[in-house]
Structure formats: C-alpha cells, structure tokens
Amino acid sequence: MFCHTHMMKSSVQYITKSRWRLFRPLLAWKITDPMLSSVSFKAASTLAVRVQPESQAMPPMPQAPLVPSGQVAPLEPVVQIPYEELRDLTPAALDKLHKAFVGERAYGAVAITGIPNYAELKQDAFRAGVDLALLDAEGRKRSAAVNNTYPGWSGTPGSETHPLQNSFLFNVKEELNGGKADPFFGKNIFPSEDYRETWVKFVDVMYSTSLQILRGCDKVLDTEISQWQKDRSLERLGDDGPALAGRFICYDSGFTREDRLLETRDGLGVSPGNSNASSIAELPEPMQSPNETSVKTVGHAGDGLASMRTHTTPVKTAGHAGDGLASMRTHTTPVKTAGHASDGMATMQTPSAPVKPTSTGYPLELSGSLAGSLAGSAAEVSEVPQPETDYWLPWHVDSNFVTILHKEMYASEITGEFIPEPPGSGLMFMNEVGETTMLNCSDPNALLLQMGAFAQIYTGGKLKACRHAVLNPVKPGVARFNYCNFWYVPWDTLCTAPEGMEAAAVNKGWNAMMDESYLNITMKQSFTAFRQFMVSPEARVQFSDSQRFKELSALLPIVRRKQGDGSGPDIQVDLLTDVRCPFSFISQMNLQAAIQNMGLQDSVVVRYHPVFLNPNVPKEGESLDDYLWREFGYTKDYAHSEDYPLRRYGREAGVEMNPNRRVVNTFDAFCVIHAAQEKGLQHELVQLLSRWYFEEAKDISDASVLRAAAEAVGLDGEAMMQRSQELRGAVQDRYEEFSAMLGEVPHFLLREQASGNGLELGGLRSVDAWEQVLQQVMERGKFMGMTIDGPHGRQVRLDQANPFTPVSHALPAQHGWLPTAWPYKEEDFSRMDERPDDQMYAEPRLAEHLDLDSLQSITDTYEAIFKACPDGFKVLDLCSSWNSHYPAEIQRASQVAVHGLNSVELEMNEVATERHIQDLNEQQKLPWADNTFDVATLALSVQYLTKPREVFAEMQRVLKPGGMAMIVFSHRSFIEKAVRLWAAEPDDGEGHAHAVCRYFQHGPEKGWEKLNTMDVSPRHGDPVWVVTAVKPTH
Predict the structure, then answer these.
(1) Partners of 796 in the beta sheet?
(2) How confident is the model at residue 848 (pLDDT cuts 50, 70, 90)?
(3) Which of 389, 457, 551, 892 has its CA 20 to 30 A from that of 62?
(4) Strand, coil or helix: what is 723?
(5) What CA–CA distance (Å, rounded) separates 257 from 315?
(6) 3-state secondary structure string, 888-907?
(7) Three-state SS for 436?
(8) What is the mean pLDDT of the chain?
(9) H and E: helices and strands count for the chain
(10) pTM of the model
C-alpha cells in the first residue's frame, strides 16, 4: 500500500518519495537488474583459484539420511572446509557447503581453515586494531568517523554501551585493486598509512577467499534451483556490490544484554540435549570482581542491529513501570495475588488482623507494584544491578547479504595485551530446528562466512541465514575484539526470492529472527534503515526510548518556542496522574525542589493529564480509613500515626498529609484543571487543589470547592465551571487514551524543548533523583542543534537541526572527497512527463506541500539565516509560489524577488516586492545583474530541475560575494515531473543530499564553498532537509 494526496485541481498524484520503488516496474526507463550485468572480479586476489569448467557436470548433492522415529539425530558442528578443498572446489568441498547452508539442520555458516599466511596477517591486523582502540588516542582523533555507520573510528573506549560501540570501520571494496569510494557509504579514513596497509594485506586474502565460497555456493544452488546461474549468482552479486563494511569492534566488559530465546525453546520442548552448547541456565557463573561496576543501560527494539529480536529481548535498564519505584496501579491494572514475591506487599492481609509495617517498613496507601519502594536507591535513575548471565549480542540474523567474521580475541582493557578466551564465551549458532552449537574450530584463525537474511531470501530459502549470538561471561577489565565484515550488494538490488519460492524465503516460527518486512526492499533501503537508527542520539548515548515514550510524545506535542527568541520552556514535563495520588503529589514537590535547586524556575513547564486511579468512585466518596482497612487491613491508628511512611515522606517534601481526607472522584476536578490550561494557570490550580486535598482534607469533587480554587488562582470561577462542563468529553477521551497505555501513576514524560529528546518514567523520586533526571534530560538536549557557515562570514545557529542523522552526515562523511567529473548523464534528467511545465502550472495550486510542523521548521531555518543578514538585505526565492514561508524577519529586507511559473500564485505572495515568471527548464538565464542578492532560496522544487548545473551557476552569479544559497527538500514529489536521478534514488534524504551537493560542486566548478548538509525535520511530521553553500569572496 502507499499513501498519496490529490492536490487541488490536479490529476497528478503527489506521493511520498519513499514509495517510489512501487512504481518502478511501470517505467520504460527502470533500472536494470545489476545481477544481469557481466561479472567483474575486482579483488587483487592472492588465492590461486582453479575454477571447474562450466561444462563439467556437477555431482548430485547427497541428502541427509532420515532419522528413525523416536531417535535424536546426531548433532552436526559448524562445517569446516580446508583451504585446499575450497580452492579447488572439490566434490568434498561442495558437499560441505551443502551441509553448511542447505536444510533445516544447517547453521548457515562455514569455517575455512588453513588459509596460507592468514594467521600472521590476522594477528598483525588485530594487533593494530587493539592498539588503536586502547592505546592510540591521537590515532583515533585522526581517523574520527562522523558517526558509527561511516568509515573511521567511532566511540570512546571504556564509556560505550552500544553493540557497535568502539570500532574502526572501512569499506574493503574501496581498498581492493581498482576499488573506489562509494559516496553513500562514505570515504575511508585511516589513522596512518601503516595501519591501512596492515589491514589491506589481510582483507585482500579474506575477500578473495570469500568470493570462492560464494562461487561454490552458486554451484550448490545449480543442483537445487533450475537455471540458477543463468538468472542469479551470489558471486556476481557480491563482487558487484559497492560496500563490504569491515568493522574491527572493541566490546568493553561493561556491555551486556539479556536474551530469553533458549528459555522459549526449552518451553516449547526442543530438547537442549540436541545441542553441544548449554542452555543459559547451565552456563558457568560469570566471573565476579569486588570492584565490579553496575552494568550500563543498553539498546531497545529497533536499535538497528541487523534483525535483532529486541522487541522481545529484555534489556538492562531502569525507570519503567513496575521497576520498584513508588507508583500506584490504576483501576484497570490487574492486582497480583496474595503473597506474590513482587506484588509490592509482603502479604495481602485480612481485616481480622491489623497490618504492621512490612519488612521494608513502607506499606502503601494504595496498591502498587513496589515493595518498600520509597527507600534509597529505588528512586535512582541509572543504578542497574549486575546480571547473572548475559550476551554481548543476543540471538539475531544479520539483515545484510553475507557476513564475514573471525574467532574473537580478548585483551586487557588497561594494557591491551592479548589474554586467553574466557570459559563459556564466544560465538553460538542455532539451526532451524533449535539445535545450538558453539564455534569450536580446529583453526583459531579460520575465516567464518555466514549467510544473511538478504542471501536467504535471494536464494528462495535454499541457503539458510545464520542464527547466532555471542555469550559474555566475562569479568570487568576484559575486552572482546572481533573483525566483522557486512557485505552489501548493489544498492538498488531488490530483496526478492526466485519466482515460486517466496513462501520458503522467510523464516517462520519461534526462532524466525526475520519477517516479511525484509522482502521487496532494496539493499540501500535496508542499510538506510539501519543507519538511520544507528546515527541517532538514541543509539549513540543509549536513550532507549521506549515505544511508550514515542507514543506519549506523539499524543503530547511539545509547545514550540520561536527560533532564537529565548521564550518558552527549555524542559517540558507532562505528568499523567490522578490529582488524589499521594505519590504523585510528593514526587511533584520533590521535582519542584530540584528545579529550584538547579535554577530552572523559568525553564521548566509542567502540564497535567488525567489517569484516574478509579473513575468509578461514587459521588459521595469514601472515608480513607475505611478504604485502607478494606483494601489492605491498615488500622486507623496506624494510618494516623506519625510513623506512617507517607506522612514522613510528605513532611520531608514540605507536605503535612491529613489522614482525615476522603477518597473522592476527581473527574470534575480534572475538567476544571483542563479549563485552566487554556488560561495558562493549570499548574497553579493543581498545586492549590493538591494542598487543599492532602493538607486540609477538602473535598475536591465538590463544585463549590473547585469554583473557589479557580478564583483563588485568579480565574473567573463561574466561567471555569461552565467551561469545565464543555470539556467533559475531551477529558474522558484523554483518560481513555492514557489509561490504555499506563497501568500505574504517577507517570512523567520529560523532554528537552528543542530536540524532543527525554525520558519517560514513573514513581516517587527524591529531590536528588529528580536533579539527576533533569540533568539527563538537559544532556540529551545537547544532541540537537548545528552551527553552520552563513551569509557574509557570519556563523548561524540552527537549534532545530539534528546533527546525528544521515543527511547531516552526508557531506562530512566524504572527508573532502568529491567526484572530479560531473557524475550524471543526460538521461538522468529525463522525466515520466516530458510535457512543458507551464502546462502543469497553468492553473494556480494554492496548497501546502508539507504538514504545518515541517513548514514551520522551514520558516525557523530561514529566520536564523535572515537574522545573520544586514538591514536592507536582498532575497531571491526561486521556484516560488503563493507562500515563501519566510518569517517576520523578512520585513528588514529591501528586496524580495519571487520567481515561479504561475502569475496568480506569485501575485498572492504577500512578502514579494517583485515577481518574475520563468520556466527554468526552458530558460536558465536569470534577469538580475551579477552580485545582487544576499540570500537565494529554492524550496521543495530542486527535484524538477532538468538542467541543475546551469541553474546553480546562475544562482551563484546573481548572489553577492559571501552570499548564501539554501536548497530545501523533503520526501514528497510530483513523481511524474521529478527527474529520473531524483525519482530513482531509494534513499530520500541522504541520497538526495549527495545529489544537491554535486549540483553545487559542479555548478559552476569551484563556484561554491562552505557546503553544509543538515536535517531540520520536526520530531513529528514530514522530513525537512537543507543543503547550503556560500559564494566565495575571492
């Protein structure tokens, strides 16, 4: 399915560019399948390959013997093939390749042993990699990557918690004989030439050996699939691929994950007796150290680790509902049975015996998910206990074509010296039937090749992708090193199965580790999805944004401030709670104290949203004494005593909890609170109502009390009561939305205003804990904003720009490299609809092409640029229409020239001082003199230019020296009018940013400097991408 919007008075579909691939088969000029092109062997091979003649008949592959019913088939270890057998592709080698990759008991991996000189080459390369990772800080600086999916060094040793954490990445294909840089993947950068040469010697042998494995697999597939090599070829696909991402990874000892897949297997009756690897429960206890530190938090579902099963993989983290933090279950939350170990109470007492304090001393006023949760560290944010058993990488299938890796090596994190492999660690494999085995190879320097999901689908499921995990029973101070290579086929190759084999192409069942989402996407789209997550701050600093954080953020948009004026909150807190929840009120008071302590009084705004503990409380309410006795067996004497925990914690927060209050229905109160939000006094009203309820025991369900409270904070009481009645439906709708997502209150959503990054957490927290939370939220905000070169030598700060997205990395990842010649052909600028453009624009199109948040982001970007301009500056808006989306700052301009195709639209443009009708695809010469304008903008139309070099050269001519050009684009196009180059690019953002950079770099040659690519997309809405450049002053 795809989404499209019918624009006004037009039969042309305006579609998101990301759906363009669905239209490719309809085009006469569709891209040719790269697998059908001739083979080119790029490797400077050191492997003497003797290929069997094509005419030589292939012996049939032997079938695995049937196992008699009731007997367990003997376990097969990972298949090993001696180098000499692979080199000659002997029948024995082909038999072993068949066993390694074909059938339900295949592990999808093969080890090649005895490769000449490979041990020495590997040792030298690993030594260089370890020294860089642990001992060479200057080398890491010289080879710094823009982020961890681009070439170079990424990470900070000892402080990373991400699966790709400390690592050095380079494109093997670029370094092989005849190789070249791939702009999309990024240009290689090395700390030294010696480092580069060491690795190139190693990967040259690795690559040619791996091609021979694929060559052998093609021969195996000839016996499995009719006319296999006539239509497809693994070897050809791999050799033609633009990138082999070679990553030398340093996993520090603090990194760990949980995985329960083997427990799932055992629960399904797949016997661990069929494995030569123990289940998790049977593995050796992890080595402990008295100096062991707490485990760092780790990633989450969608963290981009190939096809990591992280939606069901528990992650070590803190701060979620039910984590022992003081919170209250709402009416819709199932109450646990009596005596449950984690139900938050020692036992559920009967009314016949008064309850004494539990062993923790903190009985709860309402049922909660915590036991003694008000104490000490339970309220902290980042403290995470050491797990008993873990993985460096949990069970997964790599999503790429093929992965090449090696047996890991271990070293001291302090000295860098190699140490023996710790017991119980290493690579673990699983086959389709659930059998597991460790990598126990006769040659510790063997090359291991695993099939990825792409290869499995491409072969219709005949070759099995490798299910694997890496165990981590390692004590602190020990780092694991491995060199992994993720092979990518030509970027525009679709992941499709041979005709008639689609059903078997994707795994099914409890250990599938892939799904149908892998089908019918290009290699570039697959890698882009991986990169888009991995370059995000969520991955970089382990934000671990839960799905609930994202859902709540979508429901509760941030109140935006205007660019650069300093107004509005820096941190927005959305509190989802019931106004009668004592934990909520105490936690709010502690939060307010933390805000005061940090001097953030003018930087934090709190909003309140209804999640009722019990919406069915009767109108007359109920005595709190009766409620506590009935629900928990708490006596009146105990609940009124000075030792009652909530009274003590209330006093610490500055609140005297009145034990004589009643349990009341707070629906009406929240209707008034909602009405107060419209007047900007919601916080004041909530604070007053809370004081009245908890300290004075007033009935905040009573209309007269609510009216008096509204008046006490400066509101019109009668008007508020009337408005509250009108809002009853809205409050009910909000409650239903939030109660479906939350089972406990209070729940806090804290976000830094500019970035939208933040935390969602529940429960009662101390003042110190809140200070830590606020500091974390502010730290996350630092991951937003970019400073770029603006007009006339000025620096411009764009608060909304995200420096971590692929678009923002597109130019820096080239490390100064650019193609020396214009990289495009005339046919790249052909279009589906070649009719003159003035026919399409004969009628005015008074429509917006992006959503309002995205358009506001464009306006904010313009505002920052215009503020850097002198009074009386001059602006040219190319390909304009009825709305240029310029900010009020444009009033300082002395000339605003708008240029477009429709006179009616241009006449409606209110900021224009002059208008000009021109079709740039017919006439590129602009009617203004040289050096006229300070700024030129071109928004949402660059994709339609059939002669972009000429247009960009003209734009450069009419700008003053030091003047600035801004090209804005998104993922939407009138696809019939977009040039082929743009329409055929599967990666909307980064790929198109590269194209716009080429327009600048060659239009004219050396005519622009200080290029910047940036992502200014709103957190919710259409993407907004910008490329800027400055005209040289010399």
Answers:
(1) 788
(2) confident
(3) 457
(4) helix
(5) 6
(6) HHHHHCCEEEEEECCHHHHH
(7) strand
(8) 80
(9) 30, 34
(10) 0.68
Residues 359 and 897: their CA atoms lie apart, in Å, by 76
DSSP string across 70-139: T-PPPPP--EEEEHHHHHHT-HHHHHHHHHHHSSTT--SEEEEE--TTHHHHHHHHHHHHHHHHHH-HHH
Q: What pLDDT score was predicted for residue 785?
A: 87
Query: Which burial class, exposed, middle or buried, applies to 157 when counting CB atoms under 10 A from its CB (0-12, 13-18, 19+)?
Result: middle
903, 934 in Cβ contact below 8 A?
Answer: no
- The answer to whether 80 touches 442, Cβ cutoff 8 Å, is yes
Cβ atoms of 838 and 865 within 8 Å: the answer is: no
Cis peptide before 746 (omega within 30 of 0): yes
Q: What angle do CA 94, 98, 104 make, to 5 degrees?
A: 175
Strand, coil or helix: 34: helix
Total residues found in the chain within this entry: 1034
d(CA 114, CA 87): 11
Band (165; pLDDT cuts 50, 70, 90): low
CA-CA-CA-CA dihedral for 90, 92, 95, 97, to nearest 10 = -70
Element (H, E) at 263: helix 261-267
DSSP state of 281: G
Q: What pLDDT digit, counting tens, does each position of 478-522 carry?
A: 888 889 999 999 999 999 999 999 999 999 999 999 888 888 999
Selected residue with higher pLDDT from 12 and 795: 795
What does the alpha-carbon distance between residue 574 and residue 558 come to, in Å, rounded to a whole number?
A: 10
Question: Amino acid identity of 412?
Answer: S
Written as one letter, the residue type at 407 is: K
| CA distances in angstroms from 384 to 170, 257, 259, 295, 319, listed in the order given | 34, 12, 17, 6, 10
Residue 282 has a CB neighbour count (10 Å cut-off) of: 11
Query: 212 pLDDT band (50/70/90 cuts)?
Result: very high
DSSP-based three-state secondary structure for 18: helix
For the four alpha carbons of 673, 677, 681 and 686, in that order, the dihedral sign comes to: positive
Q: Which residue has the tokens 């003199």?
A: 929
- Which region among 53-57, 319-323, 476-480 has the lowest average model confidence (pLDDT)? 319-323
Of the pLDDT bands very low, low, confident and very high (cuts 50, 70, 90), residue 985 is confident
What does the DSSP assignment read for 181-230?
Answer: -BTTTB----S-HHHHHHHHHHHHHHHHHHHHHHHHHHHHHHTTSTTHHH
- Specify the 3-state DSSP secondary structure of 339: coil
d(C-alpha 477, C-alpha 951), whole Å: 58
Burial, 794: exposed, middle or buried (Cβ in 10 Å; 0-12, 13-18, 19+)? middle
Judge whether 24 and 31 are in contact, CB under 8 Å: yes
The letter for the amino acid at 344 is G
Query: Of 719, 1025, 1022, 1024, which Cα lies nearest the Cα of 15?
Result: 1022
Centre a 10 Å sphere on the Cβ of residue 335 and count the other Cβ atoms it contains. 13
Lowest-confidence segment of 157-171, 189-203, 323-337, 351-365 by average pLDDT: 351-365
Given pLDDT bands bounded at 50, 70 and 90, which one contains residue 385? very low
How far CA 122 is from CA of 210, 308, 483, 487, 898, in Å, comes to: 15, 28, 9, 19, 62
Measure the CA dihedral 971/974/978/981, to 10°: 30
Residue whose structure tokens are 């992006």:
850
Tell the residue number behind the tokens 């689609």, with chain if given: 502
Helix (H, G, I), strand (E, B) or coil at 991: helix
Q: What is the pLDDT of residue 920?
A: 96
Phi/psi of residue 751, nearest 5 degrees: -140, 140
Six-digit token pair at 554?
Answer: 């979508």
Give mean pLDDT, residues 720-727. Answer: 96
The answer to whether 142 and 133 have CB atoms below 8 angstroms apart is no
- Give 758's strand partners: 751
Mean pLDDT for 643-651 is: 88
The rounded distance, in Å, linking the Cα atoms of 649 and 628 is 18
Residue-level pLDDT at 545: 55
